[in-house]
Amino acid sequence: MVMNLFKVAIEIGYRHLDGALVYFNEHEVGQAIREKIADGTVKREDIFYCGKLWNTFHPPGLVRPALEKTLKTLQLDYVDLYIVEMPTAFKPGDTYYPKDENGKCIYHQTDLCATWEALEACKDAGLIKSLGVSNFNKRQLELILNKPGLKHKPVSNQVECHPYFTQPKLLEFCQQNNIVIVGYSPLGTSRDASWVNLKCPPLLEDELLASIAKKYNKTTAQVALRFNVQRGVVVIPKSFNPVRIKENFQIFDFSLSETEMKAIEGLNKNTRFVELLMWSDHPEYPFHDDY
């Protein structure tokens, strides 16, 4: 199923594919990419694949093996972007979510600069085109940016970003440092209480978004995506519905006025859907800081 949805997305025109080892679907994504290259729909250089370094692979000696595992699964020679998925390291080993006998996650001491140097070596070896991070706050970004002997700056920071959580301070900081914000959950999230903050109401039912959508004969999702794109945020909407996958791509034939942009900015509740509170006692948990 996943493979077919990715093929549909590529046929519609999507070129930025966001993946990760812990999504457990890289073999299907890789097959979809290879089949669309084989049938002439795209060339490899048309596809922008983002892979992620998981929390159990932070020690420098594990970085390249983790990347090589992704490349082998995808059956690709390189990834276009490889990002540190979280600044929170977990105990390395055979399980991606190591837990003690009480069911608590086992952490590992983090040295983000050492992890970064190992990533730089992978880029120098031609296995990665660009390096980035995800869920990093300003302090953690500065740690990398100010690292002595820095060879390759992070080009992107993938964080939650949508009209209810607009990230103005982090967006400004990243733009000043030529770091692109890639917004995950740009349409809000599922309502799964096991990991989603349900205090935040469903984004796509917002009345303001609905009224603007009606004006342009668009969906609330299309308005939410257009809002972020217009402010320089890359969006990576997730959908398993071919109709919605197509709709999410149809946001380039209208634009929001300055007044509408300001009104949508005013929806900001400064509340995350994705809080990841189960790891909030990790020394590098990123969301205690203001931004």
Automatic annotation (TrEMBL):
GO BP terms, alphabetized: bile acid biosynthetic process
GO molecular function: Delta4-3-oxosteroid 5beta-reductase activity
Alphabetical list of InterPro entries matching this protein: AKR (IPR020471), AKR1D1 (IPR044483), Aldo/ket_reductase_CS (IPR018170), NAD(P)_OxRdtase_dom_sf (IPR036812), NADP_OxRdtase_dom (IPR023210)
NADP-dependent oxidoreductase domain: residues covered: 5-268
Active site: 23 (proton donor)
Top-level taxon of the source organism: Eukaryota
Residue(s) at site: Lowers pKa of active site Tyr: 52
The family this protein is said to belong to: Belongs to the aldo/keto reductase family.
Protein name: NADP-dependent oxidoreductase domain-containing protein
